[in-house]
Amino acid sequence: MKIFGFQLPMMSSLLIWAVLWEIVGQLHLTMLLPPLSSILVRMTEIVPTASFLSALGETSRAFSIGTGIAIVIGVPMGILMGQSVLIDRLLLPWVNMFLSAPLTALVPVLMILFGIGEKTVIITTVLFAIWIIVLDARAGVKQISLSLVEMASCFGASPWQTFHKIYFWAALPEILAGIRIGFVRAIKGVIIGQLLVSIIGFGRLFELYSANFLMEPFWAILLVLFFFAFLISELLSMLERRFSYYAANR
User: What is the per-residue burial (b if ≥16 Cβ within 10 Å, else e) of 42-76?
Assistant: First the structure.
């Protein structure tokens, strides 16, 4: 971003929005948007508390299990769809349908099937993350040069060796891109699941603060989640750039 010919760092846009937020908050135009400085002070008070650490532990556990399941199932499923026309035609309509569907509407159904608790939150997280991981892994395999596969076949590689030595590594940039987006969608899924279940993790705290119009702690927790989502996305972007040379060698 350039202002009056000066190149500004990318983070400067966040600083501009932070200043605007502080000004609007200090004007007390609405109780829904307190000053950013008050929220940051409240954040330092909330983070060390037992309720926050307990909610962080519950949310992190559901997020880790959900994203782990999404990756373990989604990556092989996407590679198989890229390899096999039959499997691709069987599964692609379902993958596209679930990717574009309003998954939040399924949470009440999941609550009936799996009960009100962590299991429902984990399944919601999986549903939010897995489809984009499948599609990106599939797209990566579709771009692999056939000469690589033919070379593996000529050297007598087994299907498993072709899978993990050719398809996986050659499609790695797209797989990492899908995992990065899947992680961001998983954060959304775990919070939506906890909000609708409302008895565990950050969902319980959001419900408590919003019901009592405690907007400073509400925004403080939301900013912590934004920070974690941004941090995870940036770390995976760095990993993605590190392996990007595989794309050039396909």
Answer: bbeebeeeeebeebbebbebbbebbbebbbeebbb
* Among candidate residues 54, 57, 61, 63, the one with its CA nearest the CA of residue 208: 54
For residue 3, the surrounding DSSP H or E stretch is strand 2-3
| Per-residue model confidence as pLDDT tens digits over 137-154 | 999 888 887 777 778 778
CB 166 within 8 A of CB 155: no
**Three-state DSSP class for 9?**
coil
**Contact between 245 and 170 (Cβ < 8 Å):** no
More confident residue, 165 or 98: 98
Q: Is 2 helix (H, G, I), strand (E, B) or coil?
A: strand
- Cα distance between residue 117 and residue 198, in whole Å: 9
Phi, psi of 6 (to 5 degrees): -100, 130
**pLDDT for 6 beyond 90:** no
